[in-house]
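Standup notes
- HV: blocked on the assembly model, inputs below
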Amino acid sequence: MVRLSRVLLKDAGNVIDKTLSEILVCPLSKQPLRFCEKTKSLVSDTIGVSFPMKGGIPCLVPKDGKILEEESEASKKNIK
Amino acid sequence: MTALLRIVSPVTFTGGNLPDNSRSRRGTVVKCSNERRVLFNRIAPVYDNLNDLLSLGQHRIWKNMAVSWSGAKTGNNVLDLCCGSGDLAFLLSEKVGSTGKVMGLDFSCEQLAVAATRQNLKARSCYKCIEWMEGDALELPFGDCEFDAITMGYGLRNVVDRDRAMKEMYRVLKPGSRVSILDFNKSNQSVTTFMQDWMIDNVVVPVATVYGLSKEYEYLKSSINGYLTGEELETLALEAGFSSARHYEISGGFMGNLVAER
Protein backbone atom coordinates (compact mmCIF):
# COMPACT_ATOMS: atom_id res chain seq x y z
CA MET A 1 0.00 0.00 0.00
CA VAL A 2 1.28 3.48 -0.67
CA ARG A 3 0.07 6.75 0.68
CA LEU A 4 -2.19 8.57 -1.69
CA SER A 5 0.04 11.62 -1.71
CA ARG A 6 2.85 9.71 -3.39
CA VAL A 7 0.84 7.85 -5.98
CA LEU A 8 0.58 8.64 -9.62
CA LEU A 9 -1.09 5.53 -10.83
CA LYS A 10 -2.24 4.70 -14.29
CA ASP A 11 -4.27 1.56 -14.59
CA ALA A 12 -7.24 1.12 -16.87
CA GLY A 13 -8.36 4.68 -16.41
CA ASN A 14 -7.97 4.77 -12.64
CA VAL A 15 -5.65 7.72 -12.69
CA ILE A 16 -5.05 9.70 -9.52
CA ASP A 17 -3.65 13.09 -10.33
CA LYS A 18 -1.02 14.10 -7.82
CA THR A 19 -2.61 17.48 -7.12
CA LEU A 20 -5.98 15.83 -6.65
CA SER A 21 -4.50 13.24 -4.35
CA GLU A 22 -3.08 15.98 -2.17
CA ILE A 23 -6.44 17.71 -1.85
CA LEU A 24 -8.89 14.86 -1.31
CA VAL A 25 -9.70 13.62 2.18
CA CYS A 26 -12.20 11.19 3.63
CA PRO A 27 -15.62 12.91 3.45
CA LEU A 28 -16.53 11.62 6.91
CA SER A 29 -13.36 11.85 8.98
CA LYS A 30 -11.69 14.61 6.91
CA GLN A 31 -8.46 12.66 7.28
CA PRO A 32 -6.05 11.72 4.45
CA LEU A 33 -6.92 8.91 2.08
CA ARG A 34 -4.72 6.07 0.92
CA PHE A 35 -4.88 4.57 -2.55
CA CYS A 36 -5.10 0.80 -2.46
CA GLU A 37 -3.49 -0.66 -5.56
CA LYS A 38 -5.11 -4.04 -5.02
CA THR A 39 -8.72 -2.85 -4.94
CA LYS A 40 -8.14 0.39 -6.88
CA SER A 41 -10.00 2.25 -4.19
CA LEU A 42 -9.42 5.13 -1.84
CA VAL A 43 -9.09 4.00 1.75
CA SER A 44 -9.78 5.92 4.90
CA ASP A 45 -7.79 4.09 7.57
CA THR A 46 -9.23 6.36 10.25
CA ILE A 47 -12.71 4.93 9.91
CA GLY A 48 -11.92 1.72 8.00
CA VAL A 49 -13.87 2.55 4.87
CA SER A 50 -12.96 2.34 1.20
CA PHE A 51 -14.37 4.42 -1.62
CA PRO A 52 -14.34 3.21 -5.21
CA MET A 53 -13.00 4.84 -8.31
CA LYS A 54 -15.05 4.56 -11.47
CA GLY A 55 -13.45 5.39 -14.77
CA GLY A 56 -10.87 7.58 -13.12
CA ILE A 57 -13.43 9.52 -11.09
CA PRO A 58 -13.13 9.23 -7.31
CA CYS A 59 -16.47 8.31 -5.77
CA LEU A 60 -16.54 9.88 -2.34
CA VAL A 61 -20.24 9.87 -1.50
CA PRO A 62 -20.27 8.63 2.12
CA LYS A 63 -23.09 6.15 1.61
CA ASP A 64 -21.12 4.50 -1.20
CA GLY A 65 -18.23 3.71 1.11
CA LYS A 66 -17.61 0.11 2.04
CA ILE A 67 -16.49 -0.97 5.46
CA LEU A 68 -13.14 -2.68 5.04
CA GLU A 69 -14.10 -5.79 7.02
CA GLU A 70 -17.14 -6.36 4.81
CA GLU A 71 -15.03 -5.83 1.72
CA SER A 72 -12.53 -8.42 2.91
CA GLU A 73 -15.26 -10.98 3.64
CA ALA A 74 -16.81 -10.40 0.26
CA SER A 75 -13.43 -11.08 -1.37
CA LYS A 76 -13.08 -14.35 0.58
CA LYS A 77 -16.53 -15.51 -0.54
CA ASN A 78 -15.65 -14.76 -4.14
CA ILE A 79 -12.48 -16.83 -3.82
CA LYS A 80 -14.48 -19.80 -2.46
CA MET B 1 -44.61 36.14 -25.98
CA THR B 2 -41.09 36.71 -27.28
CA ALA B 3 -40.41 39.00 -24.32
CA LEU B 4 -41.69 36.34 -21.97
CA LEU B 5 -39.58 33.66 -23.61
CA ARG B 6 -36.53 35.86 -23.29
CA ILE B 7 -36.67 35.53 -19.55
CA VAL B 8 -37.61 31.90 -19.40
CA SER B 9 -36.02 30.03 -16.60
CA PRO B 10 -33.40 27.48 -17.44
CA VAL B 11 -33.95 23.87 -16.84
CA THR B 12 -33.00 23.22 -13.37
CA PHE B 13 -33.57 19.81 -12.38
CA THR B 14 -35.23 18.98 -9.17
CA GLY B 15 -36.74 15.76 -8.03
CA GLY B 16 -37.94 13.84 -5.04
CA ASN B 17 -40.85 14.70 -2.88
CA LEU B 18 -40.00 17.76 -0.88
CA PRO B 19 -42.66 18.63 1.64
CA ASP B 20 -44.08 22.12 1.46
CA ASN B 21 -41.93 24.04 3.91
CA SER B 22 -41.91 27.27 2.02
CA ARG B 23 -41.33 29.49 5.01
CA SER B 24 -39.43 27.13 7.21
CA ARG B 25 -35.71 27.14 6.72
CA ARG B 26 -35.26 24.73 9.58
CA GLY B 27 -38.09 22.43 8.52
CA THR B 28 -37.92 18.68 8.32
CA VAL B 29 -34.77 17.38 6.69
CA VAL B 30 -35.99 15.42 3.72
CA LYS B 31 -34.15 12.17 3.29
CA CYS B 32 -34.70 11.81 -0.43
CA SER B 33 -31.26 12.63 -1.75
CA ASN B 34 -31.02 9.19 -3.34
CA GLU B 35 -34.21 9.77 -5.33
CA ARG B 36 -32.80 13.05 -6.58
CA ARG B 37 -29.52 11.38 -7.43
CA VAL B 38 -31.33 8.78 -9.52
CA LEU B 39 -33.36 11.50 -11.16
CA PHE B 40 -30.34 13.59 -12.11
CA ASN B 41 -28.71 10.45 -13.48
CA ARG B 42 -31.80 9.86 -15.61
CA ILE B 43 -31.96 13.31 -17.14
CA ALA B 44 -28.23 13.68 -17.74
CA PRO B 45 -28.42 12.94 -21.48
CA VAL B 46 -30.83 15.80 -22.19
CA TYR B 47 -29.95 18.22 -19.40
CA ASP B 48 -27.74 20.56 -21.44
CA ASN B 49 -30.08 20.66 -24.42
CA LEU B 50 -33.07 21.47 -22.24
CA ASN B 51 -31.15 24.20 -20.42
CA ASP B 52 -30.38 25.87 -23.73
CA LEU B 53 -33.86 25.41 -25.08
CA LEU B 54 -35.84 26.57 -22.08
CA SER B 55 -33.71 29.59 -21.31
CA LEU B 56 -32.98 30.42 -24.95
CA GLY B 57 -29.34 30.27 -24.02
CA GLN B 58 -29.63 32.81 -21.22
CA HIS B 59 -28.45 30.37 -18.58
CA ARG B 60 -24.95 30.94 -19.99
CA ILE B 61 -25.20 34.63 -19.12
CA TRP B 62 -26.35 33.88 -15.59
CA LYS B 63 -23.56 31.37 -15.11
CA ASN B 64 -20.98 33.85 -16.38
CA MET B 65 -22.27 36.32 -13.82
CA ALA B 66 -22.04 33.72 -11.06
CA VAL B 67 -18.42 33.03 -11.96
CA SER B 68 -17.57 36.73 -12.04
CA TRP B 69 -19.10 37.20 -8.62
CA SER B 70 -17.04 34.31 -7.24
CA GLY B 71 -13.88 36.40 -7.68
CA ALA B 72 -11.97 33.47 -9.19
CA LYS B 73 -8.75 34.53 -10.90
CA THR B 74 -5.64 33.15 -12.56
CA GLY B 75 -3.87 30.45 -10.63
CA ASN B 76 -6.67 29.95 -8.11
CA ASN B 77 -7.81 26.64 -6.66
CA VAL B 78 -11.61 26.63 -7.01
CA LEU B 79 -14.58 24.35 -6.45
CA ASP B 80 -17.85 23.99 -8.33
CA LEU B 81 -20.43 22.20 -6.23
CA CYS B 82 -23.33 20.27 -7.76
CA CYS B 83 -21.36 20.73 -10.98
CA GLY B 84 -23.68 18.56 -13.08
CA SER B 85 -22.48 18.46 -16.66
CA GLY B 86 -19.85 21.06 -15.94
CA ASP B 87 -21.03 24.45 -17.24
CA LEU B 88 -19.73 26.44 -14.30
CA ALA B 89 -16.56 24.35 -14.00
CA PHE B 90 -15.65 25.10 -17.59
CA LEU B 91 -16.20 28.82 -17.05
CA LEU B 92 -14.12 28.69 -13.87
CA SER B 93 -11.28 26.96 -15.68
CA GLU B 94 -11.18 29.83 -18.18
CA LYS B 95 -10.73 32.20 -15.23
CA VAL B 96 -8.08 30.25 -13.33
CA GLY B 97 -6.20 29.12 -16.41
CA SER B 98 -3.82 26.21 -16.74
CA THR B 99 -1.96 27.28 -13.59
CA GLY B 100 -5.11 26.97 -11.51
CA LYS B 101 -7.22 24.00 -10.52
CA VAL B 102 -10.95 23.37 -10.68
CA MET B 103 -12.72 20.66 -8.71
CA GLY B 104 -16.14 19.69 -10.02
CA LEU B 105 -18.19 17.73 -7.51
CA ASP B 106 -21.61 16.16 -8.03
CA PHE B 107 -23.53 13.18 -6.67
CA SER B 108 -24.67 12.05 -10.12
CA CYS B 109 -22.23 9.77 -11.91
CA GLU B 110 -24.13 10.18 -15.19
CA GLN B 111 -23.87 13.96 -15.06
CA LEU B 112 -20.15 13.62 -14.34
CA ALA B 113 -19.76 11.28 -17.29
CA VAL B 114 -21.28 13.94 -19.53
CA ALA B 115 -18.94 16.52 -18.01
CA ALA B 116 -15.89 14.33 -18.61
CA THR B 117 -16.95 13.68 -22.20
CA ARG B 118 -17.40 17.40 -22.81
CA GLN B 119 -13.97 18.02 -21.31
CA ASN B 120 -12.37 15.54 -23.70
CA LEU B 121 -14.00 17.28 -26.65
CA LYS B 122 -12.74 20.72 -25.68
CA ALA B 123 -9.49 22.00 -27.11
CA ARG B 124 -8.31 24.66 -24.69
CA SER B 125 -5.58 23.63 -22.27
CA CYS B 126 -7.25 25.36 -19.33
CA TYR B 127 -10.05 22.77 -19.41
CA LYS B 128 -7.54 20.07 -18.57
CA CYS B 129 -7.17 21.57 -15.12
CA ILE B 130 -10.65 20.36 -14.12
CA GLU B 131 -10.95 17.27 -11.93
CA TRP B 132 -14.32 15.59 -11.52
CA MET B 133 -15.42 13.73 -8.46
CA GLU B 134 -18.55 12.09 -7.19
CA GLY B 135 -19.41 13.40 -3.79
CA ASP B 136 -21.95 14.81 -1.37
CA ALA B 137 -22.27 18.56 -0.92
CA LEU B 138 -23.11 17.90 2.73
CA GLU B 139 -19.91 15.92 3.39
CA LEU B 140 -17.18 17.43 1.28
CA PRO B 141 -14.00 15.40 0.73
CA PHE B 142 -11.74 18.38 1.26
CA GLY B 143 -9.77 19.78 4.13
CA ASP B 144 -10.38 23.15 5.75
CA CYS B 145 -9.56 26.40 3.96
CA GLU B 146 -8.77 24.75 0.65
CA PHE B 147 -10.41 26.94 -2.01
CA ASP B 148 -10.06 30.48 -3.32
CA ALA B 149 -13.62 30.47 -4.62
CA ILE B 150 -16.68 28.25 -4.73
CA THR B 151 -19.60 28.27 -7.12
CA MET B 152 -22.87 26.39 -6.95
CA GLY B 153 -25.40 26.53 -9.75
CA TYR B 154 -28.95 25.32 -9.15
CA GLY B 155 -27.73 23.09 -6.38
CA LEU B 156 -28.56 24.72 -3.05
CA ARG B 157 -32.27 24.44 -3.70
CA ASN B 158 -31.87 20.72 -4.25
CA VAL B 159 -29.78 19.72 -1.24
CA VAL B 160 -31.65 18.18 1.66
CA ASP B 161 -29.90 20.25 4.34
CA ARG B 162 -29.05 23.79 3.32
CA ASP B 163 -27.56 24.74 6.70
CA ARG B 164 -25.15 21.85 6.44
CA ALA B 165 -24.25 22.69 2.86
CA MET B 166 -23.47 26.31 3.74
CA LYS B 167 -21.34 25.26 6.70
CA GLU B 168 -19.36 22.86 4.53
CA MET B 169 -18.78 25.57 1.97
CA TYR B 170 -17.62 27.88 4.73
CA ARG B 171 -15.27 25.23 6.09
CA VAL B 172 -13.46 24.50 2.84
CA LEU B 173 -13.20 28.14 1.76
CA LYS B 174 -10.09 30.19 2.45
CA PRO B 175 -10.58 33.26 4.67
CA GLY B 176 -11.46 36.30 2.58
CA SER B 177 -12.75 34.19 -0.30
CA ARG B 178 -16.24 34.02 -1.74
CA VAL B 179 -18.97 31.59 -2.56
CA SER B 180 -21.31 32.41 -5.44
CA ILE B 181 -24.59 30.53 -5.49
CA LEU B 182 -26.89 30.83 -8.48
CA ASP B 183 -30.45 29.57 -8.44
CA PHE B 184 -34.03 30.51 -9.07
CA ASN B 185 -35.14 33.53 -7.12
CA LYS B 186 -37.95 32.97 -4.65
CA SER B 187 -39.49 36.37 -5.00
CA ASN B 188 -41.55 38.36 -2.54
CA GLN B 189 -43.20 40.05 -5.49
CA SER B 190 -46.45 38.32 -6.39
CA VAL B 191 -46.14 39.40 -10.03
CA THR B 192 -42.75 37.70 -10.35
CA THR B 193 -44.03 34.56 -8.69
CA PHE B 194 -47.04 34.53 -10.98
CA MET B 195 -44.79 34.89 -14.03
CA GLN B 196 -42.48 32.12 -12.85
CA ASP B 197 -45.43 29.80 -12.27
CA TRP B 198 -46.92 30.70 -15.63
CA MET B 199 -43.67 29.99 -17.45
CA ILE B 200 -43.26 26.67 -15.71
CA ASP B 201 -46.83 25.59 -16.43
CA ASN B 202 -47.03 26.81 -20.01
CA VAL B 203 -43.49 26.54 -21.34
CA VAL B 204 -41.19 24.47 -19.18
CA VAL B 205 -43.48 21.53 -18.46
CA PRO B 206 -44.83 21.17 -22.03
CA VAL B 207 -41.29 21.18 -23.41
CA ALA B 208 -40.13 18.74 -20.74
CA THR B 209 -43.07 16.51 -21.58
CA VAL B 210 -41.69 16.07 -25.08
CA TYR B 211 -38.60 14.56 -23.45
CA GLY B 212 -40.68 12.40 -21.14
CA LEU B 213 -39.75 14.45 -18.08
CA SER B 214 -43.03 16.16 -17.24
CA LYS B 215 -43.19 15.05 -13.61
CA GLU B 216 -39.73 16.35 -12.85
CA TYR B 217 -40.48 19.75 -14.24
CA GLU B 218 -43.89 19.99 -12.65
CA TYR B 219 -42.02 19.65 -9.41
CA LEU B 220 -40.04 22.80 -10.17
CA LYS B 221 -42.83 25.09 -9.01
CA SER B 222 -43.09 23.57 -5.55
CA SER B 223 -39.32 23.38 -5.36
CA ILE B 224 -38.99 27.13 -5.88
CA ASN B 225 -41.79 27.69 -3.39
CA GLY B 226 -39.89 25.60 -0.87
CA TYR B 227 -36.68 27.51 -1.42
CA LEU B 228 -35.50 30.56 0.50
CA THR B 229 -35.96 34.20 -0.37
CA GLY B 230 -32.92 36.34 -0.98
CA GLU B 231 -33.09 37.75 2.52
CA GLU B 232 -33.37 34.27 4.02
CA LEU B 233 -30.38 33.12 1.98
CA GLU B 234 -28.33 36.02 3.29
CA THR B 235 -29.30 35.04 6.83
CA LEU B 236 -28.44 31.41 6.11
CA ALA B 237 -24.96 32.42 4.99
CA LEU B 238 -24.35 34.73 7.94
CA GLU B 239 -25.48 32.07 10.39
CA ALA B 240 -23.07 29.61 8.76
CA GLY B 241 -20.27 31.99 9.63
CA PHE B 242 -19.78 34.08 6.52
CA SER B 243 -18.75 37.66 7.31
CA SER B 244 -20.94 39.15 4.62
CA ALA B 245 -23.73 37.99 2.35
CA ARG B 246 -25.62 39.69 -0.43
CA HIS B 247 -28.30 38.28 -2.72
CA TYR B 248 -28.63 39.78 -6.18
CA GLU B 249 -31.75 39.39 -8.25
CA ILE B 250 -31.12 39.02 -11.94
CA SER B 251 -33.12 38.46 -15.08
CA GLY B 252 -36.11 40.42 -13.97
CA GLY B 253 -36.14 38.73 -10.59
CA PHE B 254 -36.50 35.22 -11.98
CA MET B 255 -33.00 34.26 -10.97
CA GLY B 256 -30.90 35.15 -7.99
CA ASN B 257 -27.26 34.90 -6.99
CA LEU B 258 -26.06 34.78 -3.41
CA VAL B 259 -22.55 36.06 -2.85
CA ALA B 260 -21.07 35.43 0.57
CA GLU B 261 -17.58 36.10 1.81
CA ARG B 262 -15.80 34.17 4.50
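- HV (later): unblocked. The radius of gyration of chain A is 12 Å. Helices of chain A lie at 18-23, 68-79.
- Next: hand off to the docking folks.
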